[in-house]
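Re: your question from the hallway

Yes, I did run it. Sequences:
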Amino acid sequence: MEEARDYQVNLEVFQGPLDLLLFLIRKKKIDIHDIPIATITREYLAYLNQKAKINLEREGEFLLIAALLIYIKSQMLLPRESELEGEDDPRKILVDRLLDFQKIKAASTLLREKEGQQKRLWKRSAPPPLPIKQEVELVEVSVFELAEAFLSLMKRKEQENIRLIHGKEYSLEEKMKELIERLKENGYLDFREYFNSQESLEEALTSFFCLLELIKARVVIAVQESLFHPIKVWPTQGVPS
Amino acid sequence: MRTRLKDVIESLIFVSLEPLNLEKIKNICTEFSNSEIEEAIQELVESYVSNERGIQIIQAAGGYLFSTKSEHDQWIRRLLSLENKSKLSHAALETLATVAYHQPVTLAEISALRGVDASYSLKSLLQKKLVKITGRKKSPGRPLIYRTTDKFLTYFGLNNIKDLPSEEEILKILDEEKILD
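Structure:
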């Protein structure tokens, strides 16, 4: 503990437990192939002890290596008949991992350099799509699409469950006049808005027939920008009185 | 004739957004023989080296592409109003190096090599298309296998996976670090 206090380094600065181990080994100027496992284990644990709490999510890996260190230490303590060498050395698993990790670290440094060089070279990339204001191409809506739009609108109205009071009669002639008046006033008619404002199914139906008649006579035209866009009704030319 | 071919290839490279490889050029320029094409490319690349131009033709991921010269970086960044180009995070770079040197490799193997869980950085590398999934390992759990992509090569200016820093270069770095210690 005392020793560790001299180096107030947070665990966060290390890229994992292997990084911390390498740091300890370097600090002690130890040969990686001949790690004094007892010393390193003590130092390593001292680092972990600096933290009052170990966040298992983030620092669980540090504990894993701690366990490995303690395991190796216990293996080293066992009395053996012959000197441990090469493959039998319990430290080998750790040394191999450290050597691999060291190489990856060094390779990262080299790649970082290359990244820096490449970042200074600008290559052609797909040009960002420019917000060009295009003339919208309008598509004329077929009678079927109109009917479909009308039906779905009426269905929605049905669900609203409005009580109707019957009585008022609508004539095609009157409705047509009204429709043309509206077109004259606003220039165009929003299909959904128009039929939503209709009071009853009868009125809506009458209006719809009017619209179909007017389209048939090419007095008005129903268009939309593209599929699923709002349908709008425009007079083909000057609206006849 | 050859001058024309050179110009054709130049325009092909210009239009391509990704490194244009020799195979593709050959497939397009069917009127010309392979040796003519190779010669023309050589000439084209050299003309960019000798001419005092702001752009150059570089080789990356096995193909040719245009790039600016590094000394013009600051003006280009001014044009694009960029302070600095974003770099890979430390964890992402280390994970990428692990994949590059140990591919084909699984997530568990990467995590073991780095000593930390690599799933998050691997995910971000997948999103950046610097690594890709190339299949499943025939081992328990059939884990996914990861490899680096052509974009990885272009990103680091490597023509080929063999262009990765060699073992000797890595050992040299390690030796230098030892001396510094």
